[in-house]
Design a protein that fits this description.
The complex is a heterodimer of chains A (about 210) and B (about 400). In chain A, about 30% of the residues lie in helices and about 30% in strands. Chain A has about 210 residues and is of the alpha/beta class. Chain A folds into 2 domains: about 120 residues, D-Maltodextrin-Binding Protein, domain 2 (3-Layer(aba) Sandwich), CATH 3.40.190.10; about 80 residues, Periplasmic binding protein-like II (D-Maltodextrin-Binding Protein, domain 2). A 6-stranded mixed beta sheet of chain A has the order 2-3-1-4-11-5, with helices on both faces. With about 400 residues, chain B is an alpha+beta fold. Helix content of chain B is about 40%, strand content about 20%. Chain B is built from 14 helices and 17 strands. In chain B, the strands form 4 sheets. Chain B has a 9-stranded mixed beta sheet with strand order 1-5-6-12-11-10-7-9-8, with helices on both faces. A 3-stranded antiparallel beta sheet of chain B has the order 2-4-3. In chain B, helix 12 links the parallel strand 13 and strand 14. Classes of the chains: A alpha/beta (about 210), B alpha+beta (about 400).
Chain lengths: ~210, ~400
């Protein structure tokens, strides 16, 4: 872990990766757009003096907290939910969406309010702050199903365009916060690889400022 | 929860097997010896303390304290660190002892973490407190001792980042005079290491752009002593200036120790604002994602126990150091002595002699071994061997004259 060493980057597989690698390339780092063998988990990127660890997005903060990755890219939604002890260095301004409360049109308060979500911590905290006591049900996907089939009266989920909601006859009721991807760093790496991380931050933030 | 299986332990606690204990004891011994040579005397305090005294005074947040009730219903805590118990002792049992006091400790401490791997509920800390000396020399002394201790522990390469709580306090007070809530908001973002949130909060503040730029600039105040010069030009606040001057003094002393290569100045490093009152520092080792030591000046703690005094100190996170230190120590010299009933006396005397030399002697009666003895002898003739999971250097057999000694 010297300052000249290879920077280990926990990269989220899928949607965010495409946008993140594009941003990295615009910032002048030679990062491949996609990898031939997508099943490879550890990918050296010697051109940028980096090594990518391809991770499931929700696991990125964990890798970084433990220091097996020096830095990582992750959505604010995951950071809010996982609550890990990492540095949040930069708002990359990519993968923009929002965390919202969603329900059927004409929702009225029910006796036993139930909220289905992939983000139980975020949802519990939000409703507690609103002074509402709700039962939070954790689901792992297709959250929109819950109000349609009566598992819950509302859901808390990420909304990008709102298309899925519209197609399923759901409406956005409130927005909790807006979500973009962030650059995060391990506590130790942030100090021991200060130069490399600061240089990367500077290049990226220049690019982000230009993009607006 | 279902009934635990017989092998299970509560979350966050660990067993240490002989190999790990040997390593842990070696670190503990070397570090305490190092501290002793700097004039620090070791003390021990109880595992349990009152919540209302040590528990409340502790820097550990309330929800991370292990609490129990005694038979009278008084709340007891398992100690979460050693600084507050030592403050209690300094203010009571040692209250007639003149300052400065140099005390060291090695102890297990307890933290109630949410279920999470890598965060132990019980772990070991080895540390020192230097009580009653407000000078920068004292601050530099504990940093220098932290470096010596990490070296004594065998941590291969590490850096110490030093900051000062007074700098940000002064800077914020100057920039946001009387706007306590906004100051607290900014600090809480920094404490949570949330630089994005900090910048967003700055954008929303109604302050002059030049001030905003300065407050954003602090995120870059990391590096060598040149950082102090940058910081001095950032803020005219007397508190901030005083903090930087102190840091410069500490740096000067550390340079006299010849330790400047181990130390970084980092004004973005935020300790707990309510606890630390001056310089703070953290140590980082290569190949370990968590700090290996932390410390700083805490001039307000002793007053809570009725003997106001300046104090500074640090704790090594000994359990984490265990992960980065190699097993280079040569194995102990062990000798296996096998004897017959007739030669018992002679064999046991030989074992005693070996033990007095400081070597390890394990004795076994020959009839227990009968079948494996020829094999053992063959192996022992070639050099060190393993018997029932234990490594030996030599085999000595008594009472089987025909073959003689192996």
């Amino acid at each position: 872990m010297t300052d000249n060493g290879v920077l280990k980057v926990a990269m989220p597989k899928g949607r965010i990766y495409k946008q993140a690698s594009k941003l990295f390339r615009e910032a002048g780092l030679s990062i491949p757009e996609d990898f031939d063998d997508s099943r490879k988990l550890i990918i050296p990127v010697p051109e940028a003096n980096m090594e990518f660890i391809m991770a499931k997005p929700v696991d990125v903060p964990t890798y970084v907290e433990y220091g097996v990755a020096d830095i990582g890219i992750v959505g604010k939604d995951v950071l809010m939910e996982e609550n890990k002890d990492v540095y949040e260095l930069l708002d990359l301004g990519i993968a923009k969406c929002r965390m919202s409360v969603i329900g059927l049109p004409g929702w009225k308060p029910v006796i036993h309010p139930r909220v289905a979500t992939k983000y139980p911590n975020v949802a519990s905290q939000y409703f507690r702050e609103q002074g509402q006591q709700v039962e939070v049900i954790k689901l792992n996907g297709s959250i929109e199903l819950a109000p349609l089939i009566g598992l819950a009266d509302r859901i808390v989920d990420m909304v990008e365009t709102g298309q899925t909601l519209k197609e399923n006859g759901l409406v956005e009721m409130e927005t909790l916060f807006s979500v973009t991807s962030r650059l995060i760093a391990n506590r130790v790496s942030y100090r021991l690889k200060n130069n490399a991380i600061q240089a990367l931050c500077d290049r990226l933030s220049q690019k982000i400022a230009v993009r607006g | 929860m279902s009934k635990p299986k017989v092998f299970e332990k509560p979350t966050g606690v660990k067993d240490y097997l002989p190999h790990a204990v040997a390593k842990l004891r070696r670190i503990e011994r070397n570090v305490l010896e190092c501290m002793r040579r700097w004039g620090y005397e070791q003390i021990m305090t109880p595992t349990m303390e009152y919540y209302d005294t040590v528990g409340v005074a502790s820097a550990t947040s309330d929800q991370k304290l292990f609490k129990l009730l005694n038979q009278r219903g008084t709340t007891i805590v398992l100690r979460s660190e050693m600084t507050s118990p030592i403050a209690r002792v300094v203010s009571s049992l040692l209250k007639e002892t003149p300052f400065p006091l140099r005390l060291s400790y090695h102890a297990n401490v307890f933290r109630a973490f949410e279920e999470e791997a890598g965060r132990d509920a019980e772990f070991f800390q080895t540390g020192v407190e230097l009580v009653g000396d407000p000078s920068s020399e004292a601050d530099a002394e504990v940093i220098a001792l932290a470096i010596a201790s990490l070296q004594a522990a065998g941590v291969p390469s590490f850096k110490i980042a030093v900051g000062h709580v007074g700098f940000l306090n002064g800077l914020f007070q100057e920039a946001l005079l009387g706007r306590t809530e906004e100051q607290e908001n900014l600090k809480s973002h920094l404490l949570q290491r949330d630089h994005v949130g900090y910048r967003d909060a700055l954008k929303k503040l109604s302050i002059e752009d030049s001030v905003r730029g300065e407050l954003e600039g602090i995120l870059r105040l990391r590096g060598g002593v040149e950082v102090c010069d940058q910081a001095l030009s950032l803020s005219g606040s007397p508190d901030a200036q005083a903090a930087i001057r102190q840091l410069c003094e500490v740096w000067e002393v550390l340079t006299a120790y010849g330790l400047q290569d181990h130390v970084l100045i980092d004004l973005t490093m935020i300790g707990d604002f309510s606890y630390y009152t001056g310089m703070t520092f953290e140590g980082y080792a290569s190949h370990l994602g968590f700090p290996v030591c932390s410390g700083g000046r805490y001039d307000n703690l002793l007053a809570q126990f009725g003997r106001p005094a300046a104090a500074t100190g640090f704790a090594l996170k000994t359990t984490r150091i265990l992960e980065v230190v190699g097993d280079d120590e040569a194995d102990e010299n062990r000798i296996l002595i096998v004897y017959t009933k007739e030669s018992r006396r002679e064999a046991l005397l030989e074992a005693e002699r070996i033990r007095e030399e400081g070597l390890v002697a394990v004795t076994e009666k020959e009839d227990v071994l009968k079948d494996v003895l020829p094999g053992l002898r063959a192996e022992a003739a070639k050099g060190p061997f393993v018997h029932r999971g234990m490594a030996f250097d030599r085999l000595v057999v008594y009472g089987l004259e025909k073959e003689g000694r192996a």
